[in-house]
Backbone:
């Protein structure tokens, strides 16, 4: 079976989203098991930067392992969703097609996680949401001055206008 480029991209996006959700959900459920929590502690709960970085790397490794098993084993292997064969390369080695499809799907799941701003373990930008939601505090003094006759005002959009004053 051969599909067009738009359909192939749609399949990749849908499967990448499914892989992201399944891997993230699996990691979430496993985090409730005490042996798993000892093996893979939360990065935010680590007392120093060295341990925090190590925990983030372990979380990312486990996430990509789960995503790789899902992509290569389940979808590309068992499910026979293979990018090269449906793109018109029927004589390609099936194992190479499974590996390439798995790599594309795993990379896609990581990008989908960034796009959705989810907290995929170890994903780049995962803490960006928490940092950007901090309130901004501005302090200082604002002084309002009446413009004098003939003063030119900058409107802020690159244009200038001359202020008119009424004579009393």
Residues:
């Amino acid at each position: 079976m051969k599909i067009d480029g738009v359909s192939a991209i749609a399949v990749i996006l849908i499967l990448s989203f499914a892989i992201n959700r399944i891997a993230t959900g699996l990691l979430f459920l496993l985090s409730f098991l005490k042996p798993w929590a000892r093996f893979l502690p939360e990065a935010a709960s680590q007392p120093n930067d060295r341990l925090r970085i190590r925990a983030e790397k372990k979380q990312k490794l486990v996430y990509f392992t789960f995503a790789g098993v899902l992509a290569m084993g389940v979808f590309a292997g068992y499910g026979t969703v293979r990018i090269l064969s449906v793109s018109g390369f029927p004589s390609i080695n099936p194992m190479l097609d499974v590996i390439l499809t798995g790599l594309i799907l795993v990379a896609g799941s990581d990008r989908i996680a960034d796009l959705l701003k989810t907290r995929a373990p170890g994903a780049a930008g995962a803490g960006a949401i928490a940092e950007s939601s901090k309130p901004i505090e501005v302090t200082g003094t604002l002084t309002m001055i009446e413009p004098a006759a003939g003063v030119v005002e900058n409107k802020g959009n690159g244009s200038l206008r001359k202020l008119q004053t009424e004579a009393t």
About this structure: Confidence is low (pLDDT under 50) at residues 122-129.
